[in-house]
Backbone:
């Protein structure tokens, strides 16, 4: 019977491939993957001869129809990502829904996951956690999202590139400079590194003790008790607060929006304070 298999693959060390995953990838008719070059290294290592087809963010709409048609013809397909579990911060749920809509079978073949691997080794609480994948790139939106997440009594799991890790740690420090954070890089590989410390300490160790190489997982300790955290802008008036963001290059509209988020105020009230003079 034709089946869509969701197959977990190694996040670094190729020896983390399961016997079942190898067998399924050998038995299916097609392996749908993000990058055929990346998955090709894995299939070559395990002598898997199954043809590869690209399935990624930019072609998922067209390829979902193609793959569903193949399944309806009686073929079976394995969906994999470049590393770890498919669908986790990667496209694929649309394909799962489309396959189920036509009455065909979806089976999961579990495997490694970078976020959970980092949480396991971080030393931070693992009883409850929130996974948020990648943060917004725009600074004001990133700050707003982190400010929201870091008020929660759960560990926060994030992905970040080596090119943005420093900026993201600086934004975390704006929310709470003393919050304990774990940085995990090169997980399961030869130079695996997991460092847990207050975020300000991590910032001083970047580039020297912590090379900016490899994809990062960030684990942020939850806020488990209510506390009054002193904010950098507490001594500023609302107008000075807005002008601070304008001086950084934001438009007055964006600066007012950010101040409303910082101070948990209505945007209209910040606008009126800034624009209406006595």
Residues:
């Amino acid at each position: 019977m034709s089946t869509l298999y969701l197959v977990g693959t190694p996040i670094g060390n190729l020896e983390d491939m399961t016997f079942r995953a190898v067998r399924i990838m050998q038995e299916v008719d097609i392996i749908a993957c993000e990058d055929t070059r990346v998955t090709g290294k894995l299939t070559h290592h395990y002598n898997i001869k199954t043809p590869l087809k690209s399935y990624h963010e930019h072609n998922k709409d067209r390829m979902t129809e193609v793959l569903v048609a193949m399944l309806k013809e009686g073929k079976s397909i394995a969906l994999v990502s470049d590393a770890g579990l498919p669908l986790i911060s990667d496209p694929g749920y649309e394909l799962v829904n489309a396959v189920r809509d036509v009455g065909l079978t979806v089976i999961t073949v579990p495997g490694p996951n970078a976020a959970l691997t980092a949480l396991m080794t971080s030393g931070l609480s693992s009883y409850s956690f929130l996974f948020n994948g990648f943060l917004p790139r725009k600074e004001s939106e990133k700050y707003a999202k982190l400010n929201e997440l870091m008020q929660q009594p759960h560990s926060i799991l994030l992905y970040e590139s080596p090119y943005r890790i420093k900026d993201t740690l600086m934004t975390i420090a704006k929310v709470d400079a003393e919050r304990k954070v774990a940085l995990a890089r090169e997980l399961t590989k030869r130079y695996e590194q997991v460092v847990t410390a207050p975020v300000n300490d991590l910032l001083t160790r970047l580039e020297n003790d912590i090379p900016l190489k490899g994809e990062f997982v960030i684990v942020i300790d939850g806020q488990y008790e209510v506390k009054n955290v002193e904010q950098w802008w507490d001594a500023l008036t609302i107008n000075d607060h807005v002008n601070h963001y304008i001086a950084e290059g934001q438009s007055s509209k964006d600066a007012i929006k950010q101040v409303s988020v910082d101070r948990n105020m209505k945007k209209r009230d910040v606008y009126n304070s800034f624009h209406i003079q006595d």
Observations:
- The chain has three domains: 3-112, 115-220, 238-275.
- Strands lie at 3-7, 30-33, 52-54, 77-79, 105-109, 129-134, 155-160, 180-185, 193-198, 216-220.
- The first helix runs from residue 19 to 27.
